[in-house]
Amino acid sequence: MPLGHDCHAWKKKTTDVKDQYDFKEILGTGAFSEVVLAEEKGTHKLVAIKCIPKKALEGKENSIENEIAVLHKIKHANIVSLEEIFESKSHLYLIMQLVSGGELFDRIIEKGFYTEKDASKLIQQILDAVKYLHDMGIVHRDLKPENLLYYSMDEDSKIMISDFGLSKIEGSGSVMSTACGTPGYVAPEVLAQKPYSKAVDCWSIGVIAYILLCGYPPFYHENDAKLFEQILKAEYEFDSPYWDDISDSAKDFIVHLMEKDPNTRYTCDQALQHPWIAGDTALDKNIHESVSAQIKKNFAKSKWKQAFNATAVVRHMRRLQLGTSHEGLNPPLASPCQTHLLEEGADSAPIRKCLFLRADTIKRGVHIYLTA
């Protein structure tokens, strides 16, 4: 089944992918793809390989071609990259950069100290990456905290944007009108089924900035119709006491991004020049206690309770950390629950906690490679 002329321009390799990569374990499965943890034989670098059976693509060729076209164009320090593509008679293999630092909310909760300045630096990285996309004519369309992952477990790790399953490359003169995205982060013009453009991403960044400063979403209702009504009217508040210690500059920044009219909404360029990002108006006050408590309360981890094979990653990471490949030294763990017990146990060493975090965050983050 041909996948279009553009695929040939992507220089897909037709050699056996397993000649170059050792497949370790399945990390997860999506609607029509499977993600495998793999190690490049020459460099021992870990990657995530998205394995797509061609049979499963029948009728969905455009979807996967769109994702590959978008990913292949992108080279940015804060965006998960597509490194190379292999093709066999039966499968397409996308070799993806593996990010193992975990989700944004987890890292905030784990911190003991968190300030507006920390949030400002995060948003600046996101704005830089999204500006890069917009300059290339790419609209992400599904920016949300779950799609923001840390590159590594390092304290000063950069943040990475992932999940391009809903991305769209703007053609010359094309206007997007397909309703897509995640409720709660989607811009009013999308819900109103009006033509929209890059401004939808700027709205989503405003929503993310709001959450980073208080720990709860600006729009929330159990009833989707009521939620959409709030968003359509751009009705949100800076509630007391949660916003009492947040600077007026931060609120001003959010107001300009969460502007109902996309024509007057800040662009990425304008947002990057705002004093809360480019100046020194972001406060140093520790807001960790309040924000982390609200994140725990408002963002349940049910979305992470997917059947990912965490055990395999735990074993692999432990071998890497201990500098051994001897299987016998590291008996397999029966389940992610036992991994948690390992971390919590009385004899837990710091190395074990580190291993738990690294492995578990890969498990939770790997959904980014799966096409819905």
Look up the CATH topology of the largest domain.
Answer: Transferase(Phosphotransferase), domain 1
The rough form would be described as globular
Tell me the strand order in the biggest sheet. 1-2-3-5-4
Can you count the helices?
Answer: 15
CATH first level of the largest domain: Mainly Alpha
Distance, first to last CA: 21 Å
- Runs with pLDDT <50, length 5+? 1-8, 165-181, 302-315, 323-372
Biggest beta sheet attributes: 5 strands, antiparallel
Number of strands: 9
Under the CATH scheme, the architecture of the largest domain is: Orthogonal Bundle
Portion in helices: 25-40%
Radius of gyration, taken over Cα atoms and rounded to an integer in Å: 21 Å
Structural class: alpha+beta
Kindly estimate the percentage of residues that lie in beta strands according to DSSP.
5-15%
Give the full name of the CATH homologous superfamily of the largest domain. Answer: Transferase(Phosphotransferase) domain 1
Total domain units: 3
Q: What is the helix/strand order?
A: HHEEEHEEHHEEEEHHHHHHHHHH
Let me know the average pLDDT: 75
